Amino acid sequence: MTRFVLHRLLLTIPALFGLFVLTFIMMRVLPNDPSAALAGENATPAQIAAVRKAYGFDEPLWKQFIIYVEQVAHGDLGNSIISNRPVLRDISDRLPATIELTFVSLAFAACVGIPLGTLAAVWYQSLFDHVMRILTVAGLAIASFWFAIILQMIFAMELDWLPLRGRFPEGLAPPLHITGLYLVDSLLTLRFDQFGDAFVHIILPAFTLSLAGLASIARFTRAGVLETMQKEFVHYAEAAGYQRRRIIWVYVLRNSVVGATTQIGLLFGGLISSAVAVESIFDWPGVGSYAVNAILTSDYKAVLAVTLVVGVIYAAVNILVDVVHAWLDPRVAETL
Amino acid sequence: MLILKKFLRDVPAVLGFCIILAMCLIAILTPLIVPDLDRVYDGDLTSRLLPPSADFWFGTDNLGRDVFARVIVGSRGALEVALSVVALAIGIGVPAGLYAGYTDDWGSQLVMRLTDVFLAVPQLILALSIAQLIGRGLNSAMVALALTYWPFFCRTVYGEVRRLRSALFIEAQRSLGASMPRILFVHILPNVASAVIVRATIGMGFTIMTTAVLGFLGVGATPPNPDWGLSVAEGRDYLPQSWWAVTFPGLGIFITVLGFNLFGDGLRDLVDPRLRRSR
Amino acid sequence: MTEAAPRLEIRNLSVAVGTDEGEARILDRVSLKLMSGSIHGVVGESGCGKSTLMRAILGILPKRGRATEGNVLLDGRDLLTLPPSVFRTKIRGGQIGFIPQDPYQAFNPVFRVGTQLLETTRPKASGNAFDAKADIIALLKAVQLPDPEHALDRYPHQFSGGQRQRLLIAAALASSPAVVLADEPTTALDVTTQAQILKLLRGLAEARGLSMLFVTHDFGVVAQLCDTVTVMYAGQTVESGPVARVLAAPLHPYTKMLLACHPDRSAALSGIPGAVSSPLRPPSGCRFHPRCPSARAECREAIPRTSVHAGQQKVCCLLYEEEERI
Predict the structure, then answer these.
(1) Which of B82, B117, B118, C56 has a CB 3.0–4.6 Å from the CB of A18, allowing a cystine?
(2) What is the mean pLDDT of residues A291-296?
(3) Among residues C196, A15, C40, A234, which one has the least CA distance to residue B112?
(4) Which of C74, C26, C88 is nearest to C236 (CA)?
(5) CA B28 remoteness from chain centre
(6) What are the distances in angstroms from CA A135 to CA A141, B197, C94?
(7) What's the pLDDT band for A56 if we cut at 50, 70, 90?
(8) Is the predicted pLDDT of residue A331 greater than 80, yes or no?
């Protein structure tokens, strides 16, 4: 098993390295001369040249790249033009918010999607199945930003059941920072009032974000279960008298989920992508809204830093997914 | 013929095809449906934010522009952009995939590592990254999207070519002295075409959706382009009273993407159930 | 002569399955008796309905399948009248044990063998898990599986085909069933392993007084293992009786030709001309008549009466309707 993990890690390194190179190239391909931007608007050519020298922009490209890698290794991805703080600090401050949102969305999508998909497969070709198929395809076609706005309009503006934006009521102090996840921290400090506040604020964004994931999970669960039910061991289990409930929810589901774990990696990528717009709409203080702000203000270092960080996280998630897959299906680990 | 009959039995796929057909017709016939482009670009400020009526089927937006006309013209834009992006992605990805799949040299490895790099980041993030570098605007968005989508074509083609490479008829061609480009284009490409078409159809839906997101975020289309995503962003400030400015462009996105998804699914089931596992 | 009550009796069972092209009448008035403590073989070519017969007994006919007439009597109780829930809880993995055909496909690859074997004891486990586990290990010893204590923790792919088949046999016996159904359990194995498994089954049956219904297409296996046999063709039972008698003196034309096909029985390789009819459009009366060398015009009119001959050998053929000899 450890061999498998190491093998996977080894495979990812070149891709991440390539990403580094890519972001570096993108930085240097910038049409504006970074030294001019850094020197300020009214800088003289001499001042610009000085800045250039100070930052090493006059060095050959490969040397600059080495400097870049060194910087990244030290966690220095530059400062945000807007906040003037290290970009990495900005991102790490906002990361828990995004993690919390993505996690809640994914959990909801899985808890609802897997049973729905399984039932659709078990009741194959029934009315439930047909309705599910239509709903899941539709769910994937709904733009998350539009869905977010519609939900906001209905539940926050018209009905006033849920807060319009933000992660926590304005003016109130957020839960004590232990993990950075409001839901967890408020429970850890036994502040149930804070838990309630955080919870109502996360409902709309998480539900919006979960839609595509839910549809996707229901779809591939259904496909997986259908395929598994054709297998001989299911027929045998039935003939040998296993309890039906166990056949479906323990045996069939496990095989189907095993096959579907590879989909979860892709799903996560989609989740991150959707999070950008959703965070922006709900003023959710996460990495996604940070990225949007950075783009609109041409804070290029911030954007590139987000790209790198997301790349690393995405790679980590994919490796984790593969490891879980190998754990669930012992034959995979042994193929190496 | 048999394939056609089988396709016709898949009701959702046929529905998808009809939707696509309808959208294409709308896009082509736009000049007929919306002869007066002023309604799209120059609004009449005295008719701001009017609800749907007989004059304005989808109401007017905050600049007095006819939302129905904007949605219709927007459909043309959406399809054009999607086609361009997919075409560009195919133009890069398919040759790369053919090459990487057929040869075994370091070039093949390089191409595949390159796809790994581009796939290391979720597409939207990468598109945002690239777009903000090349400058904001619809053309940059298109290039950015194409650059994020080519790896999918490359991988699909790579897989198919690898599968076909050891097929008997290729061996026969080789022994008859056919050259590599000839084998690639005359023999392998037709077989790979069906996988590419399926991926392209799914890609159309995905591109329309992502273009809309970019437009919404302000990174894609710019005003006064009636891009659906942009329209939603513009109409957002006038909620909840003027719900039509946001709802109808969003519906446009929904219906079009739905059409491509349904049709793409049907195509995939028809062509190769094996492809079901990939996006 | 009074007969002891059979453990399992099939009486005039007909099963039809709906298909897109019409109704397939797979079983046509099938009858057989399984006596307590005996091994009864069911022989027939592929497509004769053996699997459907087993599914009918187990209560797992396909969705569009149903029994159109007849009874399946287990210890006198008609299984066909039972609701599906009873089948699930009491019959399958309860009173009826099942040994499948393909040991390579029967196990779920991602679960340990122990977990799966314990499923057949689960519903009845009024005792605790420890007891159930001990029972299973005892069974594994009985089927001569090496290293039974650790076997439960392994995965299916870590066992050979023959070992997996032993595991499956143990699973079938786990609930101390009244009747065991075996669906060609040796077909997927090589000849040596096949012989071992047959020997094992024979031994177990005798030691535990099992009543076993053994479905196969191979008369050779029947000769080695079974006490009595029923011959099926195209969903009809054509002949039955003690194995020794049927092998020595087959009555039905089909049985004769089937025996002649077996490479051990004749020097010349022979087959049966023609092909098995489709259950969608079966021949009327005796379904073998299109291929039967002794066919008469009356054969297609109705299914012949079953006549009983010496040593309880029964045959269903017009040739013998008149010549009933007891």
Answers:
(1) B117
(2) 85
(3) A15
(4) C26
(5) 17
(6) 10, 25, 41
(7) low
(8) no
Q: Residues C75-133: pLDDT tens digits?
A: 888 888 888 877 777 778 788 889 998 888 889 888 888 888 888 876 555 556 677 78
Question: Cβ A241–C106 below 8 Å, yes or no?
Answer: no
**What is the dihedral sign for C-alpha B122, B124, B126, B127?**
positive
Give the whole-angstrom CA distance, residue A39 versus residue A51: 6
The SS3 of residue C59 is: coil
How far is the CA of C122 from the CAs of A240, B75, C92, C138, C181, in angstroms?
Answer: 12, 60, 12, 16, 20
* CB-neighbour burial class of residue A292 (10 A; exposed 0-12, middle 13-18, buried 19+): buried
Q: Which residues in A lie closer than 8 A to residue C111 (C-beta atoms)?
A: 251, 254
Residues of B in contact with A259 (CB under 8 A): 277
Q: Which two tokens stand for residue B50?
A: 């009017």
Residue type, A64: Q
Find the residue in A nearest to B116 (Cα). A15
> For all residues of chain A together, what is the average pLDDT?
82
Provide the token pair at B248. Answer: 């109808």
Is B175 a residue whose pLDDT tops 80? Answer: no
Dihedral angle sign, alpha carbons of residues A144, A149, A150, A155: positive
Residue C264 neighbours by CB distance under 10 Å:
8
Sequence-separated (6 or more) residues with CB below 8 Å from residue C168: C99, C100, C103, C106, C107, C185
Cis amide leading into B240 (omega within 30): yes
Cα pseudo-dihedral B162, B164, B166, B170, rounded to 10: -130
**A169-216 pLDDT tens trace:** 888 888 888 888 888 888 888 888 888 888 989 999 999 999 989 999
* Both structure tokens of A142: 């709904």
Residue of B nearest to A297 (CA): B132
Distance CA C73, CA C5 (A): 11
Q: At B87, is the pLDDT very low, low, confident or very high (cuts 50, 70, 90)?
A: very high
- Average pLDDT over chain B reads 83
Q: Look up tokens 């085909």; give the residue.
A: C161
- Residues of chain A with Cβ-Cβ distance to C171 below 8 Å are 240
Find all residues with CB under 8 Å of C92, minimum gap 6, and list them: A238, A239, A240, A241, C58, C59, C60, C98
Cα atoms in the Cβ-side hemisphere of radius 13 Å centred on A159: 8
What the block records as the tokens of B198 is 């399926």
**Test the A interface: residue of B110, B129, B267, B279 with most A CBs within 10 Å:** B129
B178: distance to nearest CA of chain A, Å? 36
> Which chains does chain B touch, 3 or more C-beta pairs < 8 A?
A
Report CA Rg, chain B.
22
Pairing state of beta strands C96-99 and C179-183? parallel
C-beta atoms of A291 and B121 within 8 A: no
Which chain C positions have a beta carbon within 8 Å of A244's beta carbon? 88
What is the ipTM for the molecules in this complex?
A: 0.84
Asked whether at least 3 C-beta pairs link A and C within 8 Å, the reply is yes
Per-residue confidence (pLDDT) for residue C326, from 0 to 100: 45
